[in-house]
Amino acid sequence: MDRVIDTMDVDDILDGMIVDDDIYNDHWILLAPKGGILTVDKIALLKKSHIKTVNIRIPVSSVTERADFKEFTENYDKQLDQAQEAIKSISDGALVDMDDLYSMTSGIMDTLKCKSDVFTYLGFLHEYDDYTFSHSSNVALLANVFSQWMKFEEEDVRDLTIAGMLHDIGKTKVPIEILNKPAKLTEDEFKVIQLHTINGYTILKDRPIPNRIKLAALNHHERINGMGYPRKIGSDKIDQFSKIISICDVYDAMTANRCYRGKLCPFDVIGKLETQSYGEMDTNYLIAFLKHIAYNYLNSWVRLSNDDEAEIIFINPTELTRPIVKIRGHAFNLAENREVKIVSIL
Ligand SMILES: [Fe+2]
Ligand SMILES: [Fe+2]
User: N or C: which end of the chain has fewer CB within 10 A?
Assistant: First the structure.
């Protein structure tokens, strides 16, 4: 349980709240000690002594303590085993069961009261040994939420989710020592990794599933400026599904806890995607995606680089990574105080 400090008017204080500083009257008589509980009598005494505001400790349950998060991780672990088995068997020639594949994602999503929480929860999952399969599950979840944000038709939501689950199926054909190599890849090894797009398309191409799912496996590393792979096709030749999957793909790769890089705060990822992906990803989808993520953290508690804890109270639409936050009762605009930034979600 994390605790944050908020400055409250004495009139708003409720019985049972915990005070964060020693409170004295004008004659330096201690009215309430730091860490003490404010009872009805104590609150009355503070008012009588003309105390105007008090720093109060507010308990905040961290994400990992939430019952909803615990249920999410249990479901996620269960579905991950099934997803891994399904992807491997499809790669070995088994039939593609669309309903089965979709249920692996929808089964997790259906348990969430707020669908957008998936963005927060994915950031708090522990590291999984087999990155490819947890990454495929994550991209399916992200594609599912994104398509719902975009108000896509049910069939499109389903197909896009499955496209997320199968986008890296070609990686089952990449030697494991290259796939999981912790050090930087050599040029030749990178060429082998790049083949997962063509391999994925080859695995899926003769299956009775929508063409757009097959194309997402082939084109999710293409970039609108023609600098992607495998064919270096530009924006007008890249299909809609591949454009969306590529955004979810990069977002998950950036937030994942990889052995060679620490976990990134979602606001850092938004900043990185804004600067690095402009001109590479479809601009409309990218802006919509990043806006929804940022707005998802409205009213969340965060830690700032100056070690203050703060509540996000307003998202600056023109500067998503620098919202207005509230610190001990005072608004603090991160867009105007550029030396301070958000470092983590509490
Ligand atoms: Fe990929
Ligand atoms: Fe991927």
Answer: N
